[in-house]
Design goal:
Elements: H1 3-35, E1 68-73, E2 79-83, E3 89-90, H2 95-106, E4 112-114, E5 133-135, H3 136-146, H4 149-163, H5 167-177, E6 184-185, E7 200-202, H6 204-217, H7 219-223, E8 229-233, E9 239-243, E10 255-263, E11 267-275, E12 281-289, H8 293-310
Antiparallel strand pairs: 1-2, 1-12, 3-7, 4-5, 6-7, 8-9, 10-11, 11-12
Helix pairs in contact: 1-8, 2-3, 2-4, 2-5, 2-6, 3-4, 4-5
């Protein structure tokens, strides 16, 4: 499914929603007219309303490679689609969403963050040199877009130091604040600790709530993750340009957040938040897919969501 088809469906969904609002208003006026006292002395006939739902299930038989997945309506709090929604699985770099959320709960966006020497030796992707200083907002924008392990660890270390706790304790506090019962992290990057232990664990349901909350509370930061490349600048004036780890951001209409994750333990993970209507963000999370299939899984669920709101079974 290409970008133009998704875009057309998104616009169709918006138009149908607006028509639905108009129909609802007209129905209310009609109901008011029907129930107003009549000038006739004859008793009004009884009205019997039968509610039926013939809307097709757009999520029926959705083909996914992922071990777990969720489509979460951030407005209503309802789960539109779930596959092993509460299974606790390795998060890989989706852990970085928790790191940034935890930092913003403790630090202002303008807080200066220094890149410590120890983080420059972490596994790729990384982009910074020891001693460089960024505002939290600027560092978070670059880090989430390119999934930078040095940036995420620098943010986690600074936040933990401010709270006078370990990274894992700091991240646990942020997870608890959002009531993410299946989520915990050992480090801020999500890098595997060993061949058997991941840097972070969580469920698709938890990550959908987290991604939706971060997109709502830090739109300036998450907007950076919706472009193919993002530019940033350190406080000493050094300019950076990083490439998005999600090559399909241009195909998702009204995208608000995109975050990838991949390690040997986790497999392929993906979190998306997009606007399915007028200020109606939907979070899509895929866990335990493959490095390539996480993207087709994600776009399949986006297309099914747009079909759901358009009242059709599929595109």
């Amino acid at each position: 499914m290409d970008s133009s088809e998704l875009q057309k469906l998104a616009e169709r969904t918006r138009s149908m929603r607006e028509a639905g609002f108009a129909l609802l208003f007209a129905s209310g006026v009609l109901a008011l007219f029907l129930f107003l006292p009549s000038v006739s002395t004859k008793p009004a006939p009884a009205l019997v309303a039968i509610a039926t739902s013939t809307a097709p299930d757009a999520f029926a038989n959705v083909p996914l490679q992922a071990k777990a997945a969720v489509v979460y309506d951030t407005v209503t709090g309802k789960i539109l689609y779930a596959k092993n929604a509460d299974a606790q699985l390795p998060l890989a770099s989706l852990t970085k969403l928790l790191t940034v959320y935890a930092a913003l709960a403790e630090l202002s966006p303008d807080t200066p963050i220094t890149i410590p020497a120890d983080v420059t030796h972490l596994d790729a992707p990384h982009a910074f040199s020891a001693g460089q200083v960024f505002t939290l907002q600027e560092l978070a924008r670059l880090t989430l877009t390119a999934s930078l392990n040095d940036g995420a660890t620098a943010i986690a270390e600074a936040t933990a130091a401010r709270e006078d706790r370990s990274q894992s304790q700091m991240l646990a506090g942020a997870a608890a604040a959002l009531d993410l019962s299946q989520t915990y992290a050992l480090n801020g990057s999500g890098l595997d600790v060993s061949t058997a232990i991941s840097g972070g664990y969580g469920s698709a349901r938890d990550l959908a709530k987290l991604a939706g909350a971060l997109a709502a509370e830090a739109p300036t930061i998450t907007a950076a993750t919706t472009h193919n490349t993002t530019q940033g600048v350190s406080l000493d004036g050094t300019h950076f340009s990083v490439k998005n780890t999600d090559p399909m951001v241009g195909t998702i209409p009204h995208l608000l957040l995109s975050k990838t994750g991949y390690t040997d333990l986790a497999g392929g993970n993906l979190a998306l938040v997009f606007d399915a209507g007028i200020r109606h963000p939907i979070a899509v999370v895929v866990l335990g897919s493959t490095e390539k299939s996480r993207f087709t899984d994600g776009t399949t669920l986006v297309a099914a969501t747009l079909a759901h709101f358009a009242g059709v079974s599929s595109l």
